[in-house]
Amino acid sequence: MPKVSFKNKTICIEVEVGTTIAVCIRKAGLYIETPCSCIRVCGKCRVKAEGALFPPSYTERGFLNENEPDIRIACLAKVNGDVDIQFIEKGGTTNSAIASKEKRRL
Ligand code: FES
Questions:
Q1: pLDDT digits (tens, 9 = 90+) for 21-58
Q2: Number of domains the chain contains
Q3: Which of 32, 44, 90, 106 maximizes ligand 1 atoms within 8 Å of its Cβ, making it the mutation to test the pocket?
Q4: Confidence (pTM)
Q5: If you measure from the C-alpha of residue 18 to the centroid of ligand 1, how many angstroms do you get, rounded to a whole number?
Q6: Are the C-beta atoms of 76 and 59 separated by less than 8 Å?
Q7: Ligand 1 binding pocket includes 73 (Cβ within 6 Å)
């Protein structure tokens, strides 16, 4: 099964192929803001993802910027092998920092 790591590989989980990054984050006990509750209409659940992911769908491509090739939408991007996820800083804090305060709020 694919391995998904977070926080510079200090957290690592195994998931089924096809699992979304948002589900991986929840399974790891971490938190990411999901303003649209993962109904895939806001594109704000952005993460930096490196590794084996399926190519972005038409819907996901609509939220991506070609100048940021490693950025993916957590609710839409699906794992296809080992992946490393990094949370994106937002105004001095990070989604991973929020994780310690509000785990499992996906
Ligand atoms: S939370 Fe809206 S697309 Fe992921």
A1: 999 999 999 999 999 999 999 999 999 999 999 999 99
A2: 1
A3: 44
A4: 0.84
A5: 17
A6: yes
A7: yes
